Structures are given as structure tokens and as C-alpha cells.
Amino acid sequence: MDKKKVLSFIALIVIVILWGVVPVIGKYLLDNDFYSPSLLIATRGLLATITMVIVVALTKGFKLINKSYLICIPAGLILAAAYIFQFIGLDTTTTSKNVFLESFSVIATPISLFFLVKEKPRINALIASILCLGGAFILCGDGWNFTEMFKAPTLGDIFSAIGGALFGVNIAFTQVFAKDKNPFVYVMFQLAILTVFAFGYSFIFERPLLFSWDVGNIFIVLFLSIFCTALCWVVRAVAVKNINAITIVVMNPMSAIVATIIALSIGQETFNLNLLLGALIIVAAIVISSLPKKLSREENS
User: Fold this and answer.
1) Relative to the CA of 73, which of 6, 35, 65, 66 has its CA 20 to 30 Å away?
2) Which residues neighbour 127 within 8 Å (Cβ) at sequence distance 6 or greater?
3) How far apart are the C-alpha atoms of 48 and 85, rounded to whole Å?
4) Burial of 237 per CB tally in 10 Å (0-12, 13-18, 19+)
5) Is 25 in a helix, a strand, or coil?
């Protein structure tokens, strides 16, 4: 096997694990009132932006900047809103529900592409949307009494789903408007916009405003910012050039599985059948949504 492919595959596995760790650590920081959700996002964004500035400087990306990168403003605002909903949701729901409900991007991406470029949703995307909704319904349920299931979803579940949908909008927006953009520069500007918006939202609306100066917590935030945000995006941008699309699609939902396994193993939440069945259905929805499109690309290449 090609050495680049092997290294890229290993890199993607590391990214999957790191992104699976993020919600578990985030839940720990939020539950213990070390940070308020938006301020945690803003701090991560600031440190990640600084890291990306260094990456762009080292790759001489600043020479590529022009007015076309103004498109990063709406992209960054969408990404900021997605993260804010995600972490506010994480603050009031379980880790597993939060990460699997992010899969509402499966629904939002094709809908957004339709409105942006009139790209009609494929039949498998519609099937995946129905499966995703059904999986979310079961995941948020409390047992198998369907009358109780309607009462079970919390505000945190709803916010997590909205965050996932906004991530889907961001994916579609990036697909349409960032094709000719340097990925490092694009990510840098997105994170910069996210940081400004998140700080503004936090200082204006978030009460109480929580920030821990504990050395241990600061190192945790540095880890989340530099390794789990900035470097993961950089490595992923390079790795995807050497890995076939099908492999990437199958690996996409693995971060949610990693997060759930860690959360269960450390007692952050308890296992139930709703979690198992709902998660399996959502994973199936992700694969169904993506595989045919990727397969067609492979066949046409």
C-alpha cells in the first residue's frame, strides 16, 4: 500500500479519536462550571486561530488572500452559531445524544444545496433524512412507551440537533463557495469570525460568565484548541487528498461512537436500549446519505 495512504489513514484515525474526546472533555468542563459554553467556544476559537495563523504563515498562504475570502464572514457566522448551539446543548443533555444529534447535518446539507445551487436532493438523502429523524426520536426517548417519548427530548437535545443542522449548512456553504480557496486560509478566517462572534455572544447574553484560570483546565483548553481544532482540520485537509472517499464516509460517524464509548466507560452517562438503537439508525443514515455519491465519484474518476 502507498506510504502516503497509510500515513493519511493513520492520521484520520487519530482525528476520529480526538474529535470523539472533545465532547466528553467539554461535558466535564461544563458540568463542573469551569466555563460557560460560548466562552469556552470563543477561547478555543482564539487559540485555534492563532495556531492557524502560524500554519498559514509557514505555508506562505497570506500571499493568496484576496477579496474573495470575504465569503468566510457568513461561513464563520454559521459555524459560530453551530458551535454555540452544540455546546449549549451539551451543557444540558448527555454526551451521546449531543454527538449523535449532530448528525442532523445529514438532513440540512442537501436542503441547503437545493436553496444555494438548486441541486435536487438524491433519493438516498431523503431516505437518510427520514432515518435520521427516526433515530433521533428513539435516541431521545425514555423507554419504549411512545407517549413518553414525546416528553423525553430536552431543550439540550433540540439545541444539539439545531447545531448539527447548522454544521450541515456550513458544509453545503463551503462546498459551494470554497472550491477555489486555500483550505488553511479558509479555515483560519472561519475560526477568526467564529471567535469574534462567540466572544460577543458570550459577553452580551451569557450569564453567569464562567472562566477557569486553573492551570489544569487551561492546559485542557489548549489541548482542545490546538490539537482537536486547528491541527485536526489541517491534517484532515491534507489526508483526504490521499484516501478514497468511501473510507472517509464510513469513518465520519466514528467520532460519535468513540465519544459514547468513552462517556459510558467513565460513568458520564448510563447505557440504555434507546441509545443503542437510535445511534445505530443514525449511523446507518449517515452511510446511506453519503456512499452513493462517493461511489459515483470513484467510478467517474
Assistant:
1) 35
2) 288
3) 19
4) middle
5) helix
Count of other CB atoms within 10 angstroms of residue 71: 18
Max mean pLDDT among 25-29, 164-168, 237-241, 281-285 falls in 25-29
Mean pLDDT, range 247-256, rounded to an integer: 66
Query: From its phi and psi, is residue 244 left (phi > 0), alpha (psi between -120 and 50) or beta?
Result: beta
- Rounded Cα distance between 38 and 79, Å, is 13
DSSP assignment of 78-128:
HHHHHHHHHHHHHHHS-HHHHHHHGGGHHHHHHHHHHHHH-PPPPHHHHHH
Grid cell 456553504 is found at 173
Please tell me the pTM assigned to this model: 0.82
147: left (phi over 0), alpha (psi -120 to 50) or beta: alpha
Of residues 133, 156, 136, the one with CA closest to residue 87: 156
Say which residue the cell 472517499 belongs to.
Answer: 245
Res 193: pLDDT: 96
- Residue boundaries of the structural domains of the chain: 3-300
> Cβ distance 101 to 129 under 8 Å?
no
Average pLDDT over residues 121-127: 77
Mean pLDDT of the chain: 83
Cβ-proximal residues to 48 (8 Å cutoff; 6+ apart), any chain: 191, 225, 226, 229, 230
For the record, the C-alpha cell of 270 comes out as: 448510563
d(CA 301, CA 21): 35
C-alpha 162 chain-centroid distance: 12
For residue 118, with 0-12 CB atoms within 10 Å meaning exposed, 13-18 middle and 19 or more buried, which class applies? exposed
> Rounded to the nearest 10 degrees, how much is the dihedral formed by the CA atoms of 50, 102, 125, 15?
50
